[in-house]
Structure formats: C-alpha cells, structure tokens
Amino acid sequence: MMIRINKYIILFISFIFCQDDSLIDIYWNPEYPHKNESIVIYADVSNTKYFKYSHQMNIHLSLDGENYSTYPMFRNYNDGLFIWKYEYSLNENIYFQIDNNYDFNDAVNINTIEISNKLNLFEKIDLLLIDKKYEDCISELKHIINQNTGSSNAAKAEYMIAEIFLNDFEKYAIAANLYKRIISNYPNDYEEVKKSMFTLGYIYANYLDYYSDAIFIYSEFKRKYPNDDLISSINYELQNLAKINKEIESLLNSSK
Length: 256
Known about the structure:
Elements: H1 2-21, E1 25-29, E2 37-44, E3 58-62, E4 69-72, E5 74-75, E6 83-90, E7 94-99, E8 111-113, H2 123-130, H3 134-147, H4 152-168, H5 172-185, H6 191-206, H7 211-224, H8 231-254
Antiparallel strand pairs: 1-2, 2-6, 3-4, 3-7, 5-6, 7-8
Helix pairs in contact: 2-3, 3-4, 4-5, 5-6, 6-7, 7-8
C-alpha cells in the first residue's frame, strides 16, 4: 500500500513540474542565427512557481536529439532576477531543454534552434552595392528603416543611404542633410551618429566650404566624444580650418 501511495505522489509531482515547465518563457538572440554565430539563450522563470526561486537553472544540450550534456545557466541581472541565460556558439542545429535538474528529463519540453539559411538583414544590401544597383539598394534600405523605426538597424540603414549619396552619387548637399537627420533622430551612443557628425563636418569643410559650420560640428564632436579615436583627425581638420579662417579675414581686411 505504501508503494502505491509513493507512485501517486511521484506522478502528481511530475504533473505539477510539467505544468510549471510550460510557463518558462524561452527565447534566444539572434532569433535566426547563422552558422558559427554566437547566440544567447534566455529563460524567464518569473511566471513559474517551481522554478522562480530555484538557486540554479540548467540547460541540457544535444546535437542529435538523443544524447544530452548539461551546463549551468547564469542569472541575467541586467534584465531581472528571474531571467537566466546561456551563451553558445552555434555550429549546427541544437536541441535543448531547460530546468533545474542535473540530467535530461523526458517530462520537460524540448526546444530546437536551427541554423538560418536566410540572408542577414544587410547581406542583400551588400550584394546590391557590389552590383551597383543603387536604386534597388536605397529601396531596400528604406524598407528596413520603416520596419525598424528608431532602432540601431534603422540608423545603420539611413547611414548607408547617406554614404551612397556621398561616395557614389557625389551629391554632397543631399548627403549632408541625410547625416544631419541621423544626428537629430538617433541617440548619441549609436555608432552611426558619431560617424555622421564626423562626416558632416568633413563635407562642410572640404566640399561645401561651410567653414564655420564645420568648426561647430567638429567642436560638438569633441564635446560629446572627448576620448574617441577620431579626435586627432578632428584636431588636424580644425587646424586647417583656423588657417582658412585667418586667410579669409586677411582678404576681407585688405579689401576694405
């Protein structure tokens, strides 16, 4: 009789465990990884009772869906106390489950991450640029901007359009306006904002002859990014601009 009771208890605990396992929010970034790309697998246990206060969560990984190896996950304190993560270099498709056991458990849901054969968001753009299909390229970039409003991908797409107008079309005034838009619409910590400020100053100084505007932009760059590697280049540009300003003042004075 005692054995039967124990079996019922085990079955009941297994049922509760399985129910709680389904409440774990599991996701990974990037969502569509490529071969040899590093991914981070997350497990949000905030909505579970069984795992929420677990002192350790583990991930069981397999390459064939049959033989599993267990690895500890780590708390992702930046995103919350109940979010665990595990970083993995994806060389082939993987199967995995997440729980607080030290071995694979048949009762726990199995997840699969497959290597994506899709082109990276900007790979298609790069191919179009190689073929010099600029109109198609700009169209694709505008689609990325519309689909990713305000994101770093949108900033990158806008920067690539500005680069096309600068380097391929040699439309300096249009390019300058595009760089100004990036500076105005995105956070200062975006790489594209920093590069846009430098390039805008360069266009003003070397193509449009807007010397005072160039000095202002370069000075703003130094204020916002005082320790950046580009500071030495900006100082060189400012020295040249100071000479030009001196020459202009000399000419103005001689004409009086």
